[in-house]
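From the thread on structure requests for the teaching lab: each student submitted one protein with a one-line request. Submission from student K.M.:

"Model site-specific DNA-methyltransferase (adenine-specific) from Lutispora thermophila DSM 19022, tokens only."
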Amino acid sequence: MCNELQRLVNKYDELKKYYKGKRSDFKEETCKIDFINPFFRLLGWDIENTKGLEPHLREVIYEQNLRGTGRSDYTMTLSGVPVYFVEAKKPDVDITTDPEPAFQIRRYGWSANLKISVLTNFEYLIIYDTTIPPVEKDNCDVAILRKYHYKEYNDKYEEIYKLLSRETVYCGNFEKVLIETFGSNEQKGLKLPVDEYFLKQINTWRLQLGNYLYKEKKFPLEIINDVVQRFINQIIFLRICEDRNLPLYHALSKVIEDESILIDEMNKLFKEADKRYNAGLFSGKHIVFDLNSDIIKNIVETLYFPKSPYEFKFIKPNLLGRIYELFLTESLILDGCGNLVLYNKVKRKDRDVNRDIVTTPVEIVKYMVNKSLDELCQNKTPKEIFNLKIADIACGSGIFLIEVFEYLVRYCVNWYKNNDKNHLIVTQDGDFKLPIEDKKMILRSCIFGIDIDAHAVEVTKFNLLLKLLDDETEPSIRNENPALPNIDSNIMLGNSLVDFDIIDYAALSQDDKDVILPFDWSLINNGKKFDLIIGNPPYVNTEDMNNLLPNEELKVYKSKYKTSYQQFDKYFLFIERGLQKIKEQGYLCYIVPNKFTKIKSGMKLRELLARNKYVVEYIDFGSAQLFTDKTIYSSILLLKKSAQSNFRYSEINNLHEWWGNPNKYNSMLISSNVLTETPWVLVPDKGKMEIINKLYLNSQKLKEVADTFNGVQTS
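Reply posted by the TA:
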């Protein structure tokens, strides 16, 4: 391997003067083909997709011969999930002194929330830390982690291979290697990833807007959170549309040029956006007239270069979803000095018991969606796909629904490629995409969500509409009027565990009505059941529910749900409710703590699943931690509402390795008869599993042959 690298280095060395000469016509694309592509092939990457993987699973997304796309030249992925970018330049661009290429790749990588990204003209290969926000005045040396000259490539091949190779990424060691080599991200210093940075900026706007409306315009506190979030959503939506060259009355930057007419121009922009997109984002009364020009101008300016480090093309809806998950943990309240401040519901004792905020890793979301929908969509035509009904009944920011939407769009594209290619639109890079009319049909007909948090409902709608506009251009939506559907009847507010049939609503106090928010299931999907319910339901233990929920709500849980046994957790109820709301032969897929399989309070839930033989797949992540800043022992539970003779079981101890090499982990096909209401004892080893089965077959419960009692307790 190093001999091949040495030959590449020698070839460059021989012709370097030509490549860098003033009259040289050696182009960037030629540099990529002759040197950069072979270099990364030596690191194990399948640049040209010789394995024939589908676009969403390719190891490398390679922008060949495309200029002005606003994307990096290479995206190195872990089964389609971006890991790092590579930006290529031709050799006569001095990437060691010219700050522009460094700023470009850092901006790309930072906006996509990546740990590192790479800049190379082959003569040099530079690895940048892209957790540090890029600033226009930065020189080339800011955020450099490693810089290699081409004459060092052979001697330092092992080091480069360890950092950037496909093997490191697909063995699940990438982040571990980065920490071992460069130190932990917790030693932050200048580091501030895009999600934290964007959230910090949004919260600054919230405080500015909230305090102005409260103090100057005398807005009541109870509506300020709503109107402020709505205004911020509108501004971000317009800015993202602008960056994608989608039609707008004016760019936001143009609106703020003349402060004397800024308010009127912003109002015109909002009205035109309402006419053009008509998705409820801009309908109703705006707070533009209640704000002063300075506040609006300040917010808009921070969304543009040079004040903004964002490259909005890389801020995808799923990343925005993660940002909004954090956003939902905080709200504006009045402090003792008469100022509005941000109040963190999770860190305080009286936190929101309807949501224990965790951001589900994108690999987990993709796996759950792929696994569920592979089963559900098999051999269906697009017309049949349009009839599927899929819901997340605790949808949060909508990250599962975004992934479901993306899957269904991709499925239809692949179907038409094989059956009716003329139905599709050819993209700039020669691929195909679905007409926006079909995408709107999928969103309106197939995607549903419920959440008890009104802000979460708005965020989910916002994120889904942004996702709908992915890959759209001005020509592709020119004749679409309105460009976006109204999805108010798809994504709805309410408590999916409490409906009007199981609570005496008239007897509730107004405060209890406002907190419990019973949901009318007849209003969503015409009151019909779903083909799939998917998501990450709230995890809330009995103690927190006893302390923080209204008594009437807790009574419903204890009297109406069979799984509310002893010290039950709220996610038990979501599994039971999900099963109630899916069709016969329908699917339910949740990521939940794995303790329900062992603890005494999980007995009724285990009994429900085992007696009906609902389990299709159970994946136990053991002690592997999937969530940042949370200690949760997780599992994925895939159920089907029909009796299964067998189920598939896996134990996973490394998320990234599993996602990159799912076949490396043995999964066992186990008889459903093994599962009972007793604790589940499962191992991914056939021999051991047979022994366990025999033990259970001939065993007696201890209570049948002996009396048990507590011994002397010393503390």
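TA comment: The chain has three domains: 2-182, 194-315, 362-704. Residues 221-243 form the longest helix (23 residues).
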